[in-house]
């Protein structure tokens, strides 16, 4: 059966994820379609969801306003695969703290019991590209694009660490939930998006 | 995936570092343009102090732009407008989690270097401030921090991108509360993009080089932009936006996001208006949501608009011929 993969289009780099997913599906020759979703109705029809990069405070507040946050929580808790990128990974956490400002009171989806630090590597001038390896899911030599990126300092036992950089956790997986500090949608390497498409297809079957 | 048309891989702003855990690159086009991509579908708000910056963050702004005076107050005050106090920029950086931008004067390389060293997340080489060099903008490839520039036409936009701009915004007419010029500028850019795309699709390379000469840019960037059918960097609306409906209309014209200058903090209902403009930008294609946003503001509290035809100072003309 065809799988529907949505990209949460509240704020952030939605179009970039659309093109990465479309290219991944074509490369894999999978039966899946890509949808830009914003309303609770649109989200509830999806089999998988990407929460893109952007500003976590903005995406969190506005997804609360239009009721999409509630649907996302229900869907993910009942097994829908979700990929949270940068701001999207922050939203997956149960708490967030900013490197300079300290603990934030922002609305979060509360899926992962992790200790997450926003802007963990510094401000934009410190943003960087570096090689990362996600060995547990068979992706190595991946060019990680880190933009004012968050990082995880510790995670509960049920959270699998996929990648670390300088002792900081930069990619995680907990069952159907994946989070990355870096931006796979800003590179031509489709490995992460392909992995996610396959995950959605498997959970659908 | 990110269009990198016109990128210079030998730029001085790119820093390569070797570390034990592998090589690290900073200031690449992917990182500078990528930063702007994270702002898409969002609202950047002009602020002059910590209190305003916090109101902006709570309202859902994706970033704040620090100025010494709001554009409408720059207009009233006259004289020379320069970059904001570093102390205030630093205070704001310490009190909000969202990115902080600041403006420097057109062509003022050292104001930009100081802002970069202050660690602002993006620099706006802005016509709101008094230009330091009418003939030369900053060569932005030398900076590691990304820079946004204003443009009234495709020619201006491509000239700025060739100089290394990581993001473009319309100039509009700042500090007027009058959205007409921003609308004119984005429509002109869109029209010109359609023109070069149709020339590209027709395969008439001679006509494309004619356009490059008219725009005063290289053939390569015209060809790459024509092929894409859009600017190779994020393009926001700016200049005169005052209401949620203004923001929604500009989003409908294909803008990637919105800058609001005087429109929020020169209105008497700033916090409510800030939230309303964010709401209308996010849900611009849902009329009931834009109406809801429009209901959150009171037109009697809007900043007094100015007729662009009678202005003594047209900020949009600054640096326009270069």
Automatic annotation (TrEMBL), chain A:
Reaction equation(s) it catalyzes? L-glutamine + H2O = L-glutamate + NH4(+); aldehydo-D-ribose 5-phosphate + D-glyceraldehyde 3-phosphate + L-glutamine = pyridoxal 5'-phosphate + L-glutamate + phosphate + 3 H2O + H(+)
Q: What is the annotated signal peptide range for this record?
A: none
One of the entry's Gene Ontology molecular-function terms is: transferase activity
Any one of the GO CC terms: glutaminase complex
- List the GO biological process terms: L-glutamine catabolic process; pyridoxal phosphate biosynthetic process; pyridoxine metabolic process
Q: Where does the chain bind L-glutamine?
A: 54-56, 118, 147-148
**Keywords in UniProt for this one?**
Glutamine amidotransferase, Hydrolase, Lyase, Pyridoxal phosphate, Transferase
Catalytic residues identified in the record: 86, 183, 185
Q: Pfam families under this entry?
A: SNO (PF01174)
Q: What does the record note on quaternary structure?
A: In the presence of PdxS, forms a dodecamer of heterodimers. Only shows activity in the heterodimer.
Family under the similarity heading: Belongs to the glutaminase PdxT/SNO family.
| Protein name (database record) | Pyridoxal 5'-phosphate synthase subunit PdxT
What gene is this protein translated from?
Answer: pdxT
UniProtKB/TrEMBL annotation, chain B:
Q: Which Pfam families match?
A: SOR_SNZ
What would you give as a GO molecular function for this chain, any one? pyridoxal 5'-phosphate synthase (glutamine hydrolysing) activity
User: Can you state which reaction this protein catalyses?
Assistant: aldehydo-D-ribose 5-phosphate + D-glyceraldehyde 3-phosphate + L-glutamine = pyridoxal 5'-phosphate + L-glutamate + phosphate + 3 H2O + H(+)
Q: In which pathway does it act?
A: Cofactor biosynthesis; pyridoxal 5'-phosphate biosynthesis
Record key words, sorted:
Lyase, Pyridoxal phosphate, Schiff base
Gene Ontology terms: biological process: amino acid metabolic process; pyridoxal phosphate biosynthetic process; pyridoxine biosynthetic process
Entry-linked InterPro entries? Aldolase_TIM, PdxS/SNZ, PdxS/SNZ_N, RibuloseP-bd_barrel
Could you tell me the EC number(s) of this protein? 4.3.3.6
Main EC class the enzyme belongs to:
lyase
Start and end residues of each PdxS/SNZ N-terminal domain: 30-238
Its domain of life reads: Archaea
Q: Kindly give the Gene3D superfamilies that the UniProt entry links to this protein.
A: Aldolase class I
Q: Tell me which family the UniProt entry assigns to this protein.
A: Belongs to the PdxS/SNZ family.
Q: What's the protein name? A: pyridoxal 5'-phosphate synthase (glutamine hydrolyzing)
Q: Which organism is it from?
A: Marine Group I thaumarchaeote SCGC AAA799-N04
Q: What is the lineage of its organism?
A: Archaea, Nitrososphaerota, Marine Group I
């Amino acid at each position: 059966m065809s799988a529907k993969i949505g990209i949460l289009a509240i704020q952030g780099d939605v179009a970039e994820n659309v093109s990465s997913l479309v290219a991944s599906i074509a490369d894999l020759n999978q039966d899946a379609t890509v949808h830009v979703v914003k309303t609770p109705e649109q989200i509830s029809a999806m089999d998988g969801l990407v929460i893109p990069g952007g500003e976590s405070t903005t995406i969190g507040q506005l997804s609360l306003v239009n009721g999409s946050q509630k649907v996302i929580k229900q869907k993910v808790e009942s097994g829908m695969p979700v990929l949270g990128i940068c701001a999207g990974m922050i939203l997956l956490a149960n708490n967030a703290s900013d490197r300079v400002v300290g603990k934030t009171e922002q609305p979060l989806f509360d899926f992962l019991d992790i200790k997450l630090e926003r802007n963990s590597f510094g401000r934009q001038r410190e943003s960087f590209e570096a090689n990362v390896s996600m060995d547990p899911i068979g992706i190595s030599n991946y060019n990680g694009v880190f933009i004012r990126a968050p990082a995880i300092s510790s995670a509960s036992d049920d959270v699998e660490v996929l990648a670390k950089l300088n002792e900081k956790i930069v990619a995680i997986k907990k069952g159907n939930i994946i989070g990355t500090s870096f931006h796979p949608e800003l590179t031509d390497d489709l490995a992460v998006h392909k992995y996610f498409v396959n995950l959605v297809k498997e959970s659908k079957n | 995936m990110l269009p990198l048309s016109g990128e210079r891989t030998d730029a001085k702003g790119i820093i390569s570092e070797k570390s034990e855990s592998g090589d690290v690159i900073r200031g690449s086009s992917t990182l500078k343009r990528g930063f702007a991509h994270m702002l898409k579908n969002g609202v950047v708000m002009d602020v002059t102090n910590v209190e305003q910056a916090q109101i902006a963050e709570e309202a859902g702004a994706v970033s704040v732009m620090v100025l010494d005076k709001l554009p409408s107050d720059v207009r009233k005050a006259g004289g020379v407008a320069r970059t904001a106090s570093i102390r205030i920029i630093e205070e704001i950086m310490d009190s909000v989690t969202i990115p902080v931008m600041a403006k420097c004067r057109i062509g003022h390389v050292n104001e930009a270097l100081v802002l970069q060293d202050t660690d602002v997340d993006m620099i706006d080489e802005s016509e709101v401030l008094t230009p330091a060099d009418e003939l030369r903008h900053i060569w932005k490839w030398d900076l590691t921090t990304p820079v946004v520039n204003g443009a009234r036409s495709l020619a201006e936009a491509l000239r700025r991108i060739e100089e290394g701009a990581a993001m473009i915004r319309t100039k509009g007419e700042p500090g007027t509360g009058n959205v007409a010029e921003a609308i004119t500028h984005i429509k002109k850019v869109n029209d010109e993009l359609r023109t070069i795309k149709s020339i590209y699709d027709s395969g008439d390379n001679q006509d494309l080089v004619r356009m490059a000469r008219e725009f005063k840019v290289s053939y390569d960037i015209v060809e790459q932009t024509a092929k894409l059918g859009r600017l190779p960097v994020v393009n926001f609306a700016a200049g005169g936006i005052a209401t949620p409906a203004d923001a929604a209309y500009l989003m409908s014209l294909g803008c990637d996001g919105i800058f609001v200058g005087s429109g929020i903090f020169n209105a008497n209902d700033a916090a409510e208006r800030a939230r309303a403009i964010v709401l209308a930008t996010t849900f611009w294609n849902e009329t009931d949501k834009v109406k809801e946003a429009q209901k959150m503001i009171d037109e009697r509290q809007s900043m007094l608009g100015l007729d662009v035809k009678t202005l003594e100072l047209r900020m949009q003309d600054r640096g326009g011929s270069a």
